[in-house]
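Regression test attached.
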Amino acid sequence: MNNNKKYLVRDKKIITREYLFMKKNEFHNNQAKLPFEEKIKILVELQKIATSFPHSRHKKSLVWNI
Amino acid sequence: MEKTLKVINELKKNGLIDDYAVGGGIAAIFYIEPVLTYDLDLFIVLHKKANNKKLIELSPIFEYLKQKGYIWKGEHIIVEGIPVQFIPADNLEREAVKNANETVYHRIKTKVLTPEYLIVILLRAGRQKDIDKINKMIAQAKIQKTVLKAILEKYNLSEKYHTLIGKYDE
């Protein structure tokens, strides 16, 4: 797959796959820099999502009460 | 989680444990982006006397928590809504607790394993999810490579690290 291939997205903006992955990486790195308290709030949201799927193996797991 | 940490701090204050530090997934989250986990792993250091015995006695801790109304669910004790797993520290983990980072969570003091010790402990466990966390730690956390190298060498885990993770400077 050519990572330099250009794509037209909203507002006539042109991006490449390389840019898209760079932005994704940036997002994950920024998430890592959040305060610990914020990360725990996100964790609880993740727990809620994971336990909400009907056949989730996490169905019986306890969502934290923070 | 602050209520949970408060209760854990009481264990230390009341002399039921010498020290503790947060490990596992929650310690990883301290350094990397949030990943799904359901329990709070605590490495606990017991009094020297307790450690010298063949059978490590954890019942005083559990009795204390039981009296406070906390209940068991599988291998965890639910403390203020959070499943907590107490892991009596071995040599590596005792050293990790001693060197853990002191921090505060909603004004409650606690200790979290340093990324270097956390990587070594995760590596020793060596499950796929542990390796995934190590790779994230390397990508997103600030690791002191000389410290990591020293711990790996001390606990004969350098080869495992090179096999499963790669070279230190990668």
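Expected vs. actual: identical. The interface with chain A takes residues 1-2, 26, 29-38, 73, 78, 80-83, 103, 105-106, 139-141 of chain B (CB under 8 Å).
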